[in-house]
């Protein structure tokens, strides 16, 4: 944990120093979008890569965080930090309800029920036009107030806040995966029946993982809402969950930083492809297919296999066998 903290501090120092070396507004925009998406994709990998819960509807919490924050800031005079907490509270409450319904389902049933929940949320956003703005989204922008002397109306200030929140959020998720709770998640992923026999309450552990992942996704949605100064139906629609899945596939499902690398690749491809062709979906689909078939486990898993969390599995397996009185 100390090593991870040092790496995070160094990475944050480099990111905060970049504007002094490369004062590019295009880079600042990219970094803000990547910060929001990285939180979302990494939180999704807490479910997919660490717990074995493949959610096709995780984007619902990303969009819900964005809408809850934008509505709070538009319709109240609450300070911005309170607005962030309110948005996260709403997202977590929704995750408890949705998770209580979904986590007892297995495999493909879980995946498609989460997708159905996201489609329901999207339909509500479109239909509830007086509150959400319907298919036009929230109009009029949101106030970017001064917080602790920082004017979030400035692009570079928003850049600094975004990368700081992203690094701290990723560090928190990294520490979570190294705790006994994180090891319990891997045990559920590898052998749910044995985890139950060893005393882990399966449904409760899954629900906590689901809610925690939703909270970090909601935080990513808040950053996205700050960037676009509002909220739009695309943020809560089902393709947003697909973006998270693609980011995990591109970067590597077995590496903690895989979703971050996949996010950078996905957003970079998006920016490049849209410059040269209007058939963005077709071109990007072909590129992702090449990545998926050529690398299988993702860029980071191939380039740096030592980062795979599964490399600690043999020691854990030996510990379980020893507890059972079986010679490793």
TrEMBL record:
Pfam families: BPD_transp_2. It is a multi-pass membrane protein. The chain crosses the membrane at residues 6-22, 34-58, 78-100, 107-128, 156-177, 207-232, 244-267, 279-299. CDD domains: TM_PBP1_LivM_like (cd06581). Its main location: membrane. PANTHER family: ABC TRANSPORTER ATP-BINDING PROTEIN (PTHR30482:SF17), HIGH-AFFINITY BRANCHED-CHAIN AMINO ACID TRANSPORT SYSTEM PERMEASE (PTHR30482). This is ABC transporter branched-chain amino acid permease.
């Amino acid at each position: 944990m100390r090593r991870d903290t040092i790496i995070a501090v160094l990475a944050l120092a480099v990111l905060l120093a970049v504007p002094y070396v490369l004062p590019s507004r295009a880079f600042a925009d990219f970094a803000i979008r990547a910060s929001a998406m990285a939180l979302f994709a990494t939180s999704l990998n807490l479910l997919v890569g660490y717990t074995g819960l493949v959610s096709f509807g995780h984007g619902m919490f990303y969009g819900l965080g964005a809408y809850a924050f934008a509505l709070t800031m538009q319709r109240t005079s609450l300070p911005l930090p309170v607005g962030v907490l309110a948005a996260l509270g709403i997202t977590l409450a929704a995750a408890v309800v949705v998770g209580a319904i979904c986590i007892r389902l297995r495999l493909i049933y879980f995946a498609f029920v989460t997708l159905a929940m996201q489609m329901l949320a999207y339909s509500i956003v479109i239909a509830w036009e007086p509150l959400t703005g319907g298919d036009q989204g929230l109009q009029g922008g949101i106030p970017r107030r001064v917080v602790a002397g920082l004017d979030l109306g400035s692009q570079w200030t928003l850049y600094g806040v975004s990368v700081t929140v992203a690094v701290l959020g990723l560090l928190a998720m990294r520490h979570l995966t190294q705790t006994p709770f994180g090891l319990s998640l891997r045990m559920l992923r590898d052998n749910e029946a044995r985890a139950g026999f060893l005393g882990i309450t399966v449904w409760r552990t899954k629900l906590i993982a689901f809610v925690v992942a939703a909270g970090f996704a909601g935080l990513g949605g808040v950053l996205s809402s700050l960037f676009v100064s509002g909220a739009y139906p695309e943020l809560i629609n089902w393709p947003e969950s697909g973006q998270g899945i693609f980011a995990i596939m591109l970067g590597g499902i077995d590496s903690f930083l895989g979703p971050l690398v996949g996010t950078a690749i996905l957003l970079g491809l998006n920016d490049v492809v849209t410059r040269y062709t209007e058939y963005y979906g077709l071109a990007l689909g072909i590129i992702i297919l090449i990545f998926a078939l050529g690398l299988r486990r993702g860029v980071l898993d191939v380039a740096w296999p030592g980062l795979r969390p599964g490399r600690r599995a043999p020691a854990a397996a030996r510990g379980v066998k020893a507890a059972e009185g079986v010679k490793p």
